[in-house]
Design brief:
It comes from Aminobacter niigataensis. InterPro entries: RmlC-like_jellyroll, RmlC_Cupin_sf, UGlyAH_Cupin_dom. This is (S)-ureidoglycine aminohydrolase cupin domain-containing protein. By secondary structure, the chain is mostly beta strands. The protein has one domain: Jelly Rolls (Sandwich), CATH 2.60.120.10. It contains no helices and 9 strands. Strands 1, 2, 3, 4, 5, 6, 7, 8 and 9 form a 9-stranded antiparallel β-sheet that branches.
Length: 114
Amino acid sequence: MPRFLKIGTDGIEPEAGAPAEGRLIAGDPKFRTWNAEEAEGGLYAGIWESTPGKWRIEYDEWEFCHILSGVSVIAEEGGEARTVRAGDSFVLRPGFRGSWEVLETTRKEYVIRV
């Protein structure tokens, strides 16, 4: 098995998704996920994309995100709302609660550690 893995969408069939039941706040967001890596111990990496809408998020895992395109607003419960766009990178830590609102279809690279 090669030790170098390029993250992208080539040769990967995207998984379709949407916000979990009971979490939708507004719109009709649709997700596509190209999961490039699923390693033992709960490590995931790939590309995720969402169409406009807003939903509640709750993180039990650690996630690094790098926005490739689009504009979203991530609001922390009881805290600040942050607008993220192409070029922005950030980490959502376990325990993060709030909302994710996609204003313009957003695509991100992600690494998740469960």
